[in-house]
Design goal:
This protein is mostly helical. The chain folds into three domains: 86 residues, no CATH class; 118 residues, Tetratricopeptide repeat domain (Serine Threonine Protein Phosphatase 5, Tetratricopeptide repeat); 113 residues, Alpha Horseshoe (Serine Threonine Protein Phosphatase 5, Tetratricopeptide repeat), CATH 1.25.40.10. Helices cover 76% and strands 0% of the residues. It is built from 18 helices and no strands. The protein starts with a helix and ends with a helix.
């Protein structure tokens, strides 16, 4: 009798285990099918115009995180936020619950901060902004939200301090947020803070290379607004001269602008190409080489100009190397020149 009871008990346990395992596998499979769409929407940051039935049937417990490690409750909150304007309390509740599912991504905290900011509940916005920034300080969105809250309170020194807490080098996104704040508030800072900011601005300018937006923002602080505007006027005059093939005059204007906005790579490139068009090949090489020496990749037109210029100063091997590079970018003139002067097969 005991053997029969033991057999039935064991069978019952095995059946329960198999049933539980099948149930979990089924829920995981259903979640996987949902997550193919979720993955696309997440990459595009677009949750709008999604049928309510889809996100209402989200599997948020087994599993509780997506294939990207995003908490599924948090992602469900994003769908509701974008499709149901009257469900903000449900959105906040889901986001708060989702923090426990993955407390390391700061996805939910960052979104909660933005929601509370939109509701003008600044204390709650600040609480979650601090959490998200301390958890992932190199995230530009987290830094931007915290900076916005500090700016509202005119705590500009806290923006600077937070920027300095980020391990360097910071990303271009964070640099842009920091520079946007500083161009608005720099003139109102005391001398000590100005010196701290200026040091960071100079570093950002060096890192930003050919990023036009960051170059604009940094130069406004480094040279001052008045001189910056004068450089832009000179640049415009130089551009008009180039359009009219007046390359000597354009070089004069661009060099004057470069004297104000030092190390401006687009200005340096334009001067180099203007010299090329004048047939002054040594000067063309001199200016275009500045970019290469500072690890700024030459575009196909500049590579072609360097190739032809090198030929004209007696450096055929170097010229062929530049023409070959330009050819690989599809530069038609470079292809023809390479075939005529370099292809020995």
């Amino acid at each position: 009798m005991k053997k029969i009871l033991s057999f039935y008990l064991l069978s019952s346990l095995v059946f329960s285990a198999v049933f539980a395992s099948s149930y979990i596998l089924h829920r995981n499979f259903e979640s996987y099918k949902q997550q193919k769409k979720i993955y696309i929407d997440l990459n595009q940051s677009n949750y709008k115009e999604t049928p309510k039935e889809f996100y209402n049937n989200f599997e948020t417990e087994l599993p509780s995180i997506s294939i990207t490690a995003m908490p599924l409750k948090g992602l469900k909150a994003m769908y509701i936020l974008d499709n149901e304007i009257d469900s903000i309390n449900q959105v906040k509740s889901l986001l708060r619950k989702s923090i426990l599912d993955n407390p390391y991504l700061m996805f939910s905290e960052g979104n909660l901060s933005q929601i509370y900011y939109a509701e003008r509940k600044y204390d709650s916005a600040y609480y979650y902004a601090r959490k998200s920034f301390n958890g992932l300080p190199r995230n530009a969105i987290h830094f931007a939200m915290l900076g916005k809250l500090y700016a509202n309170k005119n705590h500009i020194d806290s923006i600077i301090y937070s920027y300095e807490k980020i391990n360097k080098p910071s990303s271009g996104g964070i640099d842009r947020v920091f520079m946007s704040s500083m161009t608005n508030f720099y003139n109102a800072l005391n001398d000590s803070l100005k010196q701290r900011v200026l040091k960071h601005v100079i570093d950002i300018k060096k890192r930003s290379g050919t990023q036009k937006e960051l170059q604009y923002l940094t130069d406004q602080i480094i040279v001052g607004e008045e001189e910056f505007q004068r450089a832009l006027s000179l640049e415009e005059e130089g551009r008009i001269f180039i359009q009219n093939n007046k390359f000597n005059e354009s070089i004069v204007k661009y060099k004057e602008a470069l004297a104000i906005r030092k190390n401006n790579y687009p200005y340096i490139q334009t001067i180099g190409l203007a010299y090329y068009n004048l047939g002054q090949f040594k000067d063309a090489i001199k200016y275009l080489s500045i970019l290469e020496n500072d690890d700024i990749p030459l575009d196909p037109v500049s590579l072609y100009a360097m190739g032809i210029s090198s030929f004209n100063v007696g450096k055929q091997k170097t010229g062929c190397q530049y023409l070959e590079k330009a050819s690989k970018f599809g530069q038609e003139n470079a292809k023809v020149a390479y075939l005529n002067y370099c292809d020995t097969e």
